[in-house]
């Protein structure tokens, strides 16, 4: 048996380079630390700090803006200075932000801590994501293994962190919220120390470029902007887990308690099925068709609820369409998310992968911000029950036409 055939039978993670393993474990640690704190933030702001509901929403929106909106800045800085200083600076800011949040009792202090937490992610996340994408391409060229498999493993690591983080946070919340924040900061202390020791000063093949001129070239790249719009449609659909789905669960059961089980179902599906699904699809479909299939699955999830909604099922039976929606949406996510990241290196200008990776999040995040307001209005207009879900189904279906034609 040849060495190549032996390597193909080895587990996916066993064939990765040390740098890729470090970056994938980084995503796991990032999400454990972040999601240990985030799910409990709104209740802390409302109960312990005493903020009004509108102010809690405003603070949470600021966090999202300072993170997603500034991803493009973090990506550009990674292209200019390399990923090591940007990642280390982001980790240091996240530690300071979590520690500050744990002791913040006034509105201005909470806002400052939340902005710092968001900006920290805007530094380290696009740096790590862009380097994972670049290394996935290098790995593909060296081994023949599809880059989407590496990026799928990256997605699994992130989802596992998002699953473990809230469990850790809930356990520590029995002490107090400050303990949760300090534990999150402690995780990032470990990440900072590990990267200061293990992350190379210079990564072979990564050349630093000037900041000037990068955005102008990006705005002229119609194929990349088309991918951003299609990815934004996916994120808008995914955001309905937090907007349309809770309303449907409340209608069916009179409570939002089943939401926790539906979210757990989504996380479990990603952790257990992401790699097999990516492997199966990668052997049969190229990037555009794979992403189109994912968007169709997401559209089918909304259409399923629209089809059954007029019947008016309640109780356990009423949860079945919601569960079907979550399954189809998650399956679509498994196809769309890794493929979109895998596609960016083919569309980015040389040396500006960080900028383009950050722009993918920033542009799509802006689409979600605008689209979520429209969705909230749609759900509150008193239209027939199936209409909002049919409109939402049309969004990912229409996005297929936006996907770049050439790969």
UniProtKB/TrEMBL annotation:
The chain crosses the membrane at residues 20-41, 47-65, 86-103, 109-129, 150-171, 177-199, 224-245, 257-278, 290-308, 320-341, 353-374, 386-403. Residues 1-407 form the Major facilitator superfamily (MFS) profile domain. Keywords: Cell membrane, Membrane, Transmembrane, Transmembrane helix, Transport. The keyword Protease does not apply. It is found in: Cell membrane. It holds the Pfam family MFS_1. CDD domains: MFS_MdtH_MDR_like. SUPFAM superfamilies: MFS general substrate transporter. This is MFS transporter. It comes from Streptomyces justiciae. The lineage of its organism: Bacteria, Bacillati, Actinomycetota, Actinomycetes, Kitasatosporales.
